Structures are given as C-alpha cells and as structure tokens.
Automatic annotation (TrEMBL):
CDD domains: NAT_SF (cd04301). Pfam families: Acetyltransf_7. This is GNAT family N-acetyltransferase. Keywords: Acyltransferase, Transferase. GO terms for molecular function: acyltransferase activity. Its EC number is 2.3.-.-. Residues 3-142 form the N-acetyltransferase domain. It comes from the Bacteria.
Length: 142
C-alpha cells in the first residue's frame, strides 16, 4: 500500500466531497451539518491536506489557524479504514499547527459518533467538555 499526504488543490474538490459523503453517510441520522458543502472554500481559505492510498483520494483534514488552532474536519473513506490514513492526516495538521506557533489543537465531534470519539482518545486527545450534541477535544503539542 502506498499512502501519500499532500496539500489539497482545487482539482481535489470532487474526490474530497465524495470522500466526505462516504465517511459521514453512517452518521447522517444524527442531523449533522452539511459536510459536503464548502469544500472549495476550505481549500482556498484554510490548510487542507488529502491522503491518497494507491493513487486514490481516501481522506482529508481541514486545519483552521487563528487565535486557536482547530481541526474543522477529518474524514477517511470507509474503504481506507484501518490503513493509517486518519493518524497520518492528524499528524500533518498537528505539525502545521506547531510550526505556526500553536501549543494546542482543538476539535469538536458529535456525541453520537462514539467510535470517532474513541479514535481521538486512542490518539492522545482529551475530552474537554460537552454542550448539547457537541463533544470537545484538545491535544497538546510538544
């Protein structure tokens, strides 16, 4: 298996949108916001990386840098689950946040996405709070 993490380009919008749709499909009953909208704006306005597995786009991460650094979206296509795509995308985002001078990165997930919460906990994230359906996580950068 060949895994490549690279900066997203505008040409990636259709494949990344499809990846988001597939990754979030099992959770649409939770009333999530429309995850497939604004992919082109994210690529233009934020730090976005994609993961290619054997030449096929299989994941993406959106890092927003401002007063706080946060991951606005992380998605891995179900066909690439368990292949290390998510951890590699997170590593890229954390390295970029650290290089930009941040000491911490934040994210929010849905309380009904328990498997996703477990993924973050296994990868060193700490739950920092809950508000309605939202579960907040943070990780420290060394």
């Amino acid at each position: 298996m060949s895994l490549i993490i690279r900066k997203a380009a505008s040409a990636d919008v259709p494949a990344l949108t499809g990846c988001y749709a597939a990754a979030y499909a099992p959770f649409q009953h939770l009333g999530l916001p429309p995850v497939t909208e604004g992919v082109d704006a994210d690529i233009a306005d934020h730090n976005v990386w994609v993961a290619e597995v054997d030449g096929t786009l299989r994941g993406g991460v959106v890092l927003v840098l401002g007063k706080r650094a946060y991951i606005a979206n992380l998605a891995v296509h179900p066909d690439a689950s368990g292949q290390g795509v998510g951890p590699q995308l997170i590593a890229q985002a954390l390295a970029a946040a650290k290089a930009a001078g941040h000491g911490q990165v934040h994210l929010v997930t849905h309380c009904g996405m328990t498997r996703t919460q477990g993924f973050y906990r296994r990868h060193g994230w700490t739950e920092t709070g809950r508000d309605g359906d939202k579960v907040y996580f943070a990780t420290q950068l060394n």
